[in-house]
Design brief:
The chain has 144 residues and is mainly α. It is built from 8 helices and no strands.
Length: 144
């Protein structure tokens, strides 16, 4: 299930990037979804159940990041906590469209897309390391 969440996170991220110029609200919403799915992918890979995530994390991006860190995730992009803190109050209540204009203007959305791309890459690397017994699967491919 972790791989499915990770793949879906990447799909939402790609759509968010594509929508930036024409549909900025879609970009914000899909970035929030991508953050949620990526962090939950990490938690699922660490043995945290989808039911637990659904009950205890729900759509709280800040809590998801905190839980992932507690579970050992240490490679979160530097800008992720601020982005999660900005989006989470709106995303939790399905109100991304209600973000205050000054909040929207406070973010470089192309940089936010880069941050989420880096998050997904870090989660992917962590999952791949775990699946290969601690070594990155890219290293295994290069050696083989």
């Amino acid at each position: 299930m972790a791989y499915t969440f990770r793949r879906n996170a990447a799909g939402f991220h790609e759509t968010a990037e594509a929508a930036q110029d024409r549909h900025p609200e879609v970009t914000r919403y899909f970035l929030a979804i991508a953050i949620e799915l990526a962090l939950k992918a990490y938690l699922l890979d660490r043995g945290i159940s989808d039911d637990w995530n659904r009950i205890h994390i729900r759509h709280d991006l800040t809590r998801a990041l905190k839980c992932a860190r507690r579970a050992g995730f240490s490679d979160a992009p530097e800008r992720l906590p601020a982005l999660a803190a900005l989006l989470s109050p709106y995303y939790e209540v399905h109100a991304i469209s209600a973000m205050a204009p000054d909040a929207v203007a406070s973010v470089s959305w192309p940089e936010a897309c880069d941050t989420v791309r880096d998050l997904i890459a870090a989660v992917s690397a962590a999952i791949d390391r775990e699946a290969s017994g601690g070594e990155s699967s890219l290293m295994n491919k290069e050696d083989g």
